[in-house]
Amino acid sequence: MSQYRVLIDANDEKGLVYKVSSVFYQNDMNILSNSEFVDKENNKFFMRSVVEGDITLEKLHKLISDIMPENANIDVIAPQDKNIIIMATKEMHALGDILIRHEAGELEANILAVISNYSDLESLVSRFNIPFVCISHVDLSREEHEDKILEHLTKFKAIDYIVLAKYMRVLTPQFVEVYEKKIINIHHSFLPAFIGANPYKQAHERGVKIIGATSHFVNNNLDEGPIIAQEVIHVDHAYGWRDMQRLGKDVEKVVLSRALKLALEDRIFVYANKTVIFQG
Amino acid sequence: MSQYRVLIDANDEKGLVYKVSSVFYQNDMNILSNSEFVDKENNKFFMRSVVEGDITLEKLHKLISDIMPENANIDVIAPQDKNIIIMATKEMHALGDILIRHEAGELEANILAVISNYSDLESLVSRFNIPFVCISHVDLSREEHEDKILEHLTKFKAIDYIVLAKYMRVLTPQFVEVYEKKIINIHHSFLPAFIGANPYKQAHERGVKIIGATSHFVNNNLDEGPIIAQEVIHVDHAYGWRDMQRLGKDVEKVVLSRALKLALEDRIFVYANKTVIFQG
Amino acid sequence: MSQYRVLIDANDEKGLVYKVSSVFYQNDMNILSNSEFVDKENNKFFMRSVVEGDITLEKLHKLISDIMPENANIDVIAPQDKNIIIMATKEMHALGDILIRHEAGELEANILAVISNYSDLESLVSRFNIPFVCISHVDLSREEHEDKILEHLTKFKAIDYIVLAKYMRVLTPQFVEVYEKKIINIHHSFLPAFIGANPYKQAHERGVKIIGATSHFVNNNLDEGPIIAQEVIHVDHAYGWRDMQRLGKDVEKVVLSRALKLALEDRIFVYANKTVIFQG
Amino acid sequence: MSQYRVLIDANDEKGLVYKVSSVFYQNDMNILSNSEFVDKENNKFFMRSVVEGDITLEKLHKLISDIMPENANIDVIAPQDKNIIIMATKEMHALGDILIRHEAGELEANILAVISNYSDLESLVSRFNIPFVCISHVDLSREEHEDKILEHLTKFKAIDYIVLAKYMRVLTPQFVEVYEKKIINIHHSFLPAFIGANPYKQAHERGVKIIGATSHFVNNNLDEGPIIAQEVIHVDHAYGWRDMQRLGKDVEKVVLSRALKLALEDRIFVYANKTVIFQG
């Protein structure tokens, strides 16, 4: 008995659920969970099923492909640890939370390496027997720096996700294109956000009573990629901007780990600069 | 084109989704939304579909019944305003919230009457052109009082739900049995709760930092019926028990209105003293 | 024994607490609650005390004024219902929540009138024996329309607060100036916000996972006044923009009522386009 | 210039704020923050001030003691890292969160040692250069086991707090007495709670829609000590009890770290089995 996650998105039309479920039924498969969503506005159908049965991944994929319309995207995935790269700069909270979850066996992931433009985090990372790679940006153009990172990344056979755990540099469109829909960022604000440097200082000056954080896929518009998860925390006048920043870290790490978990469990569809996420 | 909500629960077995969706497909129906859940532990399958097509309710019900196993419960519902009775005592917050929502057209409901054991709320209710019925419990046994209420309720052809909007009397098993799975209560606590009189005073004495409220169906164990919705609010040492009670009212009305809305939209399955609720 | 709320803000300097508390002590007054805050950045001191004693308001004010620095703002307030005007347009949820709270005796307020540019809400308001004034904006310039409202407002001796309960017109700087720090608005977003028409539609297009609402004092920059309260609610891909709008209403009414209550209890200081709020 | 945290609790009487602030004023001290609370019911006064000035701790303590009533408890504390012991069993999430925060410099604490009745956590702890002490309970009575722990603890000069980061054994009254008001626990529920083994399983069976966690000081009634912090998270029918347990871990670590931080910053008063906590 093998278990598979089946993810399908297609233009909506009658009979899609019927056709997919007929494949499962005719091959004597159990449906462990099943979620569908139709975006009427964009006429898009989304379905995620977790099924088990005595069938190969290839055969299941073929049977579904045969019956689905041409325009459908079909993923059949056997659950296994995904390969991830973490990129960070100097801050420890988001990275540390992932390292501890990984150590506790909570994440379906192999951490291939942590890459940073500084060496500050080396001491922490190396304790977890995870390769730490410092690629300094000093005296390099943005492109030169990224080329060195990309070169290093080619050493790894397959990278499922790159997690920006407070990586404080903007990635170029060239870099993002290579890892489209695979780069997960944590943004220190809900969106729309205070634009520019030090959003906590801006939030404090504006006198907000709530601060938040957003995890999203990175696309070529800075901080504008498809949102995966958001969370907030209440503050009041007694919080200076440094207090907000400190509290914000707690929200950031929670939101990033939540988003990463959703990605590792193949729960996220990305389309129209948005996400459909099946939690059930 | 008619729209229907189809609710099915059954012992889980292979092919249930396939069979139901085949009925929709073969009758050229659109699936507007579709949710399933399998409780592995209890081997129970739940499905709620919103569909539209050129078919009568009776025929759709028959077609699904023909193809489903004997043990299945099948509901096919044409969306329309449900008939509800509100029972209250003296407090205005939960009742008032429902009245305003009803007035604003937010609820799929006709309020047939508000019944109270006091006359305090008559002035408010009558302004909304809703019948107010005062049935005093003074000098009556619990059974005599309920008999008078039950007698009044028989005047109404069909009652879909009875909403206890801070009705401060315990209902007898005899009463509850008549309206099984139809009585929605708001409890001034999350559950498990401080037992007995004045839970806010107890919560205050215990020094809790969170208070909450629970909406649930009423069964024959007081405060022990299937939970529909819960919400909480943070408090601190500066809140006396009366402050907690006041804040608690805000949570109570939110939770009760949320639960009522879920019920009116036929989103709730009840089984094993729990609920399965499809929000999507 | 009389009870007073004493509100003081001043440039921070040593001895302010000592000096104020010496007045209370030397006049044999009880301190029921006492809150202070110092904004180091702006060197500003804020203090709110609730005290009781055998002394007139005037004498207490004078004693404190004598001992405080020249730059201090001193308010001594005897708790009593404040006079408020509600302005609304067509939507019922925020107004209705205030009306029910007022009816239930939860608000320290007299509602002098509800003013609207449409007549839709007249039926609801009149049931609560509150004057409803329809001042249509049709065929009037913004200034002409506001002049008619201002003229009507002059009929009332003292207006403590004007509550914009989904009043959908932008007020001119001239109007705002007349009621500086007295106009409380509810904004259908947290701030910073999606700018322009239909923020819920924009939020939906952006694929946000949280929506919120903000209550703030109105100043001459639209949606940019000092924030009083904010709240959020989680959404997901299954919520269309109308669902978000409907859920948003629940947040809006909660936030506006919370802000109004804080204002009525004299808990808010406004400065530097921010608020200091003592909840304790 | 030295900075001090001054904590005072006393039976309430007139003039307490005046007297304390007079000490500050006459010694030319700055008040950086100041919070007071009066529990009318118990007639208890609480005050926490952060002050700075050119004065020794001993002198400041003496001046305040001289002027305060006999019954007052007075603490004058110079901010410095506190000495803490962490006790854990096998689970990594709560401990890991504290270790990362400590490593990141977020905690005002020296971690003297981590003590466990198993060796599972040794690998993690030792990476952080923190002594790990395994004191097995196998073949020992509860008292014998605790004696060994107590003996080990006597090696440390001063222990400010013992943090039970998922230490899964019940402490005896004898142990608790030694470290009264110094032991901070995390409980996997809000309180009141499902009693007994596996509360998540019970919560799941009850069909709750919210789960939570509570951090509290340990007293001699199991899970009944003064509450410091509580938090909750929403769940639904799709969460099995293991899912609830996993989600619960996220809440547990957040709540425990929050409580620890409050303790380390001397923000907590304990009385009447409750806490007064000044966050400002």
Throw out a few tags for this protein.
homotetramer; about 280 residues; alpha/beta; Alpha-Beta Plaits; Rossmann fold; 2 domains; 7-stranded mixed sheet; 4-stranded antiparallel sheet; 8 helices; about 30% helix; globular
What does it look like?
4 copies of one chain form a homotetramer. By secondary structure, chain A is of the alpha/beta class. The first copy, chain A, is built from 8 helices and 13 strands. Chain A is 31% helix and 31% strand. In chain A, a hairpin with a 2-residue loop joins strand 12 and strand 13 (274-277). The radius of gyration of chain A is 21 Å and the shape is globular. Chain A starts with a strand and ends with a strand. The model of chain A has no long low-confidence stretch (mean pLDDT 94). Chain A binds chain C through residues 37, 39-41, 190-194, 205-210, 212, 214, 226-232, 234, 236-238, 240, 272-277, 279, and chain C through 37, 39-41, 190-194, 205-210, 212, 226-232, 234, 236-238, 240, 272-277, 279.
SSE blueprint and pairings:
4 copies of one chain form a homotetramer.
Chain A: E1 2-11, H1 16-26, E2 30-39, E3 44-53, H2 57-67, E4 73-77, E5 82-88, H3 93-103, E6 109-116, H4 122-126, E7 132-134, H5 142-153, E8 161-164, H6 173-178, E9 183-187, H7 199-206, E10 210-217, E11 227-234, H8 241-264, E12 268-271, E13 274-277
Parallel strand pairs in A: 5-6, 5-8, 6-7, 8-9
Antiparallel strand pairs in A: 1-3, 1-4, 2-3, 9-10, 10-11, 12-13
Helix pairs in contact in A: 3-8, 7-8
